[in-house]
TrEMBL record, chain B:
The name this protein goes by in its record: Putative membrane protein
Transmembrane regions: 34-53, 65-85, 106-128
Compartmental location: Cell membrane
Protein's UniProt keywords contain Transmembrane: yes
UniProt entry tagged with the keyword Flavoprotein: no
Domain DUF202: 25-94
GO CC field: plasma membrane
Source species: Actinopolyspora righensis
This protein's UniProt keywords: Cell membrane, Membrane, Transmembrane, Transmembrane helix
Membrane topology recorded in Swiss-Prot or TrEMBL: Multi-pass membrane protein
Length: 116, 130
């Protein structure tokens, strides 16, 4: 990446030019929030008619949701502790966890659709 | 470009096992694309649950066609969720090894699939009045 900053400018330059890390963090937040709201609404809908099934769904979703939360906090800490101009620590564990959560939410949605 | 030192090995090794560290901006963009696909999957699943809830609330006997459509949307959401991760991995691998990016197959499937779902909803509206 060409660096056009002069000395004084560089001192005040943002740590993350283009705000890539910030944009990615916001994308993670949007996605996480939509999954949290989606699964809450879904389990509430199931609990309306089948409380035990809803409990089962919560027990299936919760461990994965907690895992994703732990991985997200760990990644956030690792990234924010990075010195300037270093690569963020990316790993496939968090994407895999969220994709698994999404598949589980879809399965719970199918359970709801079939049982309703 | 300097390769960052990592205390732990990164998973999956199928992605991180070979190639060089790409420009961080590309990895982050790949991650955001993955997340956008997941939100798309969430929208598909929400649509499925939504039409089934309306189906149950508005008629005493549920229309099985609507239930099948809801299941189709939910299955599509599950499929997109799973495929978005494999695509993230394939793209990250391509970025590291300098090979061309994988072809965007999900876009075509989703586009034609949603067109078919739209036609299905239109037919349902006309024939059964949902």
């Amino acid at each position: 990446m060409p660096d056009h900053h002069t000395g004084d400018e560089r001192a005040r330059a943002p740590v993350d030019p283009g705000l890539q890390i910030e944009r990615t963090t916001l994308a993670w937040l949007r996605t996480g929030l939509s999954f949290a709201v989606g699964s809450l609404v879904l389990t509430r809908l199931i609990a309306h008619t089948r409380p035990l099934v809803a409990l089962g769904c919560v027990l299936a979703l919760l461990p994965v949701a907690v895992l994703v939360g732990v991985l997200a906090v760990r990644r956030y800490r690792a990234d924010s502790a990075l010195p300037q101009h270093r690569q963020p620590l990316a790993d496939g564990a968090l994407p895999a966890g969220v994709a698994l959560l999404a598949v589980l939410v879809g399965a719970v949605g199918m359970v709801y659709t079939v049982l309703l | 470009m300097s390769v960052p030192s990592h205390g732990t090995r990164r998973w999956p090794s199928r992605v991180y096992g070979e190639g060089d560290e790409p420009d961080a901006r590309f990895s982050l963009a790949n991650e955001r694309t993955f997340l956008a696909w997941l939100r798309t999957a969430m929208a598909l699943m929400a649509a499925g649950v939504g039409i089934e809830t309306v189906n149950a609330a508005t008629s005493s006997s549920q229309n099985p066609l609507v239930t099948w459509l809801a299941l189709l949307l939910l299955a599509g959401g599950v499929l997109v969720s799973a495929a978005s991760f494999t695509r993230w991995a394939a793209t990250e691998r391509a970025l590291r090894t300098g090979r061309p990016l994988p072809a965007p197959r999900m876009g075509a499937v989703l586009g034609y699939g949603l067109a078919a779902v739209g036609v299905g909803i239109a037919v349902l509206l006309v024939i059964v009045g949902i």
